[in-house]
Amino acid sequence: MEIVDFVKFKKEEIKKEVSLFDEVSFLIIQVGDNEASNAYVKGKIKDALEVGIKPVLKKLDENIKEEDILSIIDEANKDESICGIIVQLPLPSHIDEKKIALSISYKKDIDGFHPLSLFTPCTPKGIIMYLDSLNYDYESKNALIIGRSNIVGKPIASLLLNKNCNVTITHSHTRRDDLFSYVKNADLIIVAVGKTYFLDDTFLFKDDAYIIDVGINRENGKLKGDVIPNLKVKYQSPVPKGVGLLTRVALLENILEGKRNGI
Length: 263
Ligand code: NAP
Fold this sequence. Notes:
The protein is an alpha/beta fold. The chain is built from eight helices and ten strands. The longest helix is centred in the last third of the chain and has 18 residues.
């Protein structure tokens, strides 16, 4: 099933389960009026409404004090009607993002950024949900992860290890020659670098490799992935309409999970 169809199917499932509860609600805190953040927040609200989840948006002034954001989060941590809290990043430079992230209760941290969070970060979770839906056989596969960020590379590595993959993580200090040989031996490649067409046909791939392209690069108004399209492999996820959609549906799944767990 293509990602677009999987996401439609998943949203239907979530909608059915949400309807069993009186109310499923989550809070989005946005500080300032950053254009990209406006678009992301709008998307999250639209997705939530589509499946019957109630979004509560607190859009705060750019100059708000850190302590005022902390007290809004503290209130939401205690509010039983709110089962998840998101703080849209980036925050203005006078606010300590780490302090804010740590102030969200680990029971309500649906982005999965708190070290004790009960939730899996949305992008890795969405990728695994999709691979599972394809009945991907993880057992003993060589998984290569290009990029070691805290929101993608590291958590997906841990999830794939738990699925019995042999996991290699590469980064900007990885020697080019080594990267070529890792790619050549990889059964599953997750690319999260943030450079247009970082992975291209100068690399050699296994014919039956699966490639998941996490990258989103804006070029002349168009979205491009980290992987050049149409490589000769068994599966390659598209950009756009790929991992971005999986990330969004995984967030809905996390909100519902919070509700299911009675948070
Ligand atoms: P990030 O924090 O910017 O990290 C990029 C990673 O790529 C770093 O670990 C960096 O290595 C590594 N890297 C840079 N140059 C490299 C090279 N030449 N060889 C190997 N590794 C290299 O990235 P991120 O937040 O994970 O995001 C990555 C991309 O995914 C971005 O385009 C972002 O927009 C996109 N993204 C998409 C979604 C989605 O839902 N589709 C979600 C999250 C992110 P060092 O650690 O050594 O610097």
